[in-house]
Amino acid sequence: RISCIIPVFNGERYLAETLDSVFAQTHPPFEVIVADDGSTDRSAEIARTYSQPVITIHQPNAGHAAARNLGLSIATGEYVAFVDADDLWHPEKLTRQLALFAARPELGVVFTHLQNFWSPDADPAARPNEDAFLPVPGYTSVTMLARRALFTRVGLLDVTLQHGNDRDWFCRAAEHGVVMEMMPDVLVQRRLHDSNRSASLGNNSRAEYLRILKASLDRRRAASADVAQYPFRSRDES
After folding, report:
1. pLDDT band at 220 (very low <50, low <70, confident <90, very high)
2. Is the Cβ–Cβ distance between 93 and 27 less than 8 Å?
3. 192: phi then psi, degrees, rounded to nearest 5
4. Distance between CA atoms of 216 and 116, rounded to whole angstroms?
5. Structure pTM?
6. Residue 108 is inside which H or E element, if any?
7. Rounded CA gap, 184 and 214, in Å?
8. What is the signed CA dihedral for 38, 41, 42, 43, rounded to 10 degrees?
């Protein structure tokens, strides 16, 4: 049982294509949640046109992480998958990830590789160089399949982080000993276009990543110091 969460803010241009790729899965999610982050366009209306059940929930505009958390607040699946409202999944994404979970029960999170593509409706003059379209390891929320219980253990996404809230969550998951695996399969197509969030927030991303890294190092140092002071204390007691 997989819950798919799609955060969307004014995503009417591509939301239908994203939903189509979700419903085309060989192992379809049993619930699809569109978390509308205060859209002023037809995003919610598009989600409601699907014959397949789509749960549409709304909040005043509060950002990408808050929309993901909103979806998590009502998700009921054993596993959770996120996809942005402009990206596409390979039809076997969930099937292949579930197979790896079945083979390795100790896993908590499974990632896949991803590949960028230039949206056909975008300005050709703004197209990046070809290096931007090579497959890369997708250490990002749109590739991952995670056990839902981890969001109770690790916590929700940090809503103060605009660009790196998923990277921060991965750091916290690693600190909690969560076992994560990167698959070599390219199972997500990430759309590049004129109004990507990553482009608009790119100027702030480096400072945010440094903040995430420092916070993780500080937590690890504090945990090490606690173990050194109380060597017989269990993790649950710390």
Report:
1. confident
2. no
3. -105, 135
4. 29
5. 0.87
6. strand 107-118
7. 29
8. -40
